[in-house]
């Protein structure tokens, strides 16, 4: 089973850059998108109801902002939109889907760079989500948590750690949340297979950073430890263009 996650930085925009052709070529069992910036009513039918897939969408009250989408080859047993808190759910940041063998959370985490208030919002979102995934884990679920986390975990996960030590996305308190997630029985699936530097998923458009591979690894597949025997591979699809992020992949038996 192949699962792909991608912050597309605007689903309508990436449609003009070969998204559907790429989707058909990859043919994943599950595709998770973040930062879709669109409601279903703004999208063509081939996107809202693609052949052979069930599609789910969460979108923000604010037009052209945030949003996530989930495409499943097999219909999930259940789907939940949001965390049940209006302050977060109005931004369309989470879809939770239960499948026979695991529970998947597709999440677009907030960005904390705009203001101290947004950083506080981001950290509160983190803690609220941790409560949710810990509950799922206690209930015996095998959990996959994926999406744009908007934080690089360790120095190896960004090109210029010293210069960004006091920038949101690499602040100690943000990185500490990932430590806490791992202590609660989750694994960073990519680092099970690849411990090399220079492995990034986001590059700044304005500075043409992708050409120089001056990037950040801020997109993840976190899995509960009980899923580890099933993981065949986890990778970064850095050759895929169309967004300031590239897709990431997870393959399970």
Structure commentary:
By secondary structure, this protein is α+β, with helices and mostly antiparallel strands. The protein has one domain (2-252): Endonuclease/exonuclease/phosphatase (Deoxyribonuclease I, Chain A, 4-Layer Sandwich). 26% of the residues lie in helices and 26% in strands. The chain has helices at 11-15, 19-26, 45-48, 86-89, 116-138, 172-183, 189-193, 209-212; strands at 2-7, 30-34, 54-58, 68-72, 78-81, 94-98, 103-108, 143-148, 186-188, 202-203, 215-216, 219-224, 231-236, 248-252. The strands form 3 sheets. Strands 3-4-2-1-14-13 form a 6-stranded mixed beta sheet. The longest helix is centred in the middle third of the chain and has 23 residues, at 116-138. The model has no long low-confidence stretch (mean pLDDT 97).
């Amino acid at each position: 089973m192949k699962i792909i996650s991608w912050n597309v930085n605007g689903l309508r925009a990436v449609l003009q850059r070969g998204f559907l052709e790429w989707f058909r070529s990859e043919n994943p069992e599950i595709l998770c998108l973040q930062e879709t910036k669109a409601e279903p009513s703004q999208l063509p039918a081939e996107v809202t109801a693609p052949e052979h897939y069930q599609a789910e969408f969460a979108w923000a009250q604010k037009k052209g902002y945030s949003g996530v989408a989930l495409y499943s080859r097999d219909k999930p047993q259940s789907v939940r939109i949001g965390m049940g808190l209006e302050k977060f759910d109005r931004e369309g940041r989470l879809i939770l889907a239960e499948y026979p063998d695991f529970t998947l959370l597709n999440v677009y985490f907030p960005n904390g760079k705009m203001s101290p208030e947004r950083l506080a919002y981001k950290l509160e979102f983190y803690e609220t989500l941790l409560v949710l995934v810990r509950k799922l884990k206690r209930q015996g679920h095998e959990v996959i948590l994926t999406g744009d986390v908007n934080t690089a975990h360790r120095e190896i996960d960004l090109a210029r750690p010293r210069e960004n030590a006091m920038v949101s996305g690499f602040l100690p308190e943000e990185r500490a949340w990932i430590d806490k997630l791992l202590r609660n029985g989750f694994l960073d699936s990519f680092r099970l297979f690849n411990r090399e530097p220079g492995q990034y998923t986001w590059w700044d458009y304005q500075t043409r950073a992708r050409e120089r591979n001056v990037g950040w690894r801020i997109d993840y597949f976190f899995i509960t430890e009980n899923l580890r025997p099933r993981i065949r591979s986890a990778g970064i699809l850095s050759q895929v263009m169309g967004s300031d992020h590239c897709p990431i992949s997870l393959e399970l038996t």
